[in-house]
Amino acid sequence: MKFLTVAEVASVMQVSKMTVYRIVHSGHLPAIRVGRSFRVPEQAVHEYLRGSYVGEEIS
């Protein structure tokens, strides 16, 4: 299992590091604490992005 830093997650999600911290603290994105920093499972980032994606509806 590969873990990403908050900075790497922010880059993948194209958001700020503060936004990643908010998502982690809200419990929507699992993370483990390593010392004073967080590591997020790469798979969890992809699952979060899939779950939060809102596409256009086809009519």
Distance, first to last CA: 40 Å
Please estimate the helix content: 40-55%
Low-pLDDT regions: none
SSE ordering: EHHEEH
Mean pLDDT: 90
Q: Tally the beta strands.
A: 3
Structural class: alpha+beta
> Beta-strand percentage?
15-25%
Strand order of the largest sheet: 1-3-2
Sheet with the most strands? 3 strands, antiparallel
Number of helices: 3
Which word captures the global form? globular
Cα gyration radius (Å)? 12 Å
Explain what you see.
This protein is of the alpha+beta class and 59 residues long. The chain is built from three helices and three strands. The chain has helices at residues 6-13, 17-26, 42-52; strands at residues 3-5, 32-34, 37-41. α1 packs across α2 (17-26). The model has no long low-confidence stretch (mean pLDDT 90).
Characteristic terms for this protein:
59 residues, alpha+beta
Brief summary:
The protein has 59 residues and is α+β, with helices and mostly antiparallel strands. Helices cover 49% and strands 19% of the residues. The termini are far apart.
Topology, element by element:
Blueprint: E1 3-5, H1 6-13, H2 17-26, E2 32-34, E3 37-41, H3 42-52
Antiparallel strand pairs: 1-3, 2-3
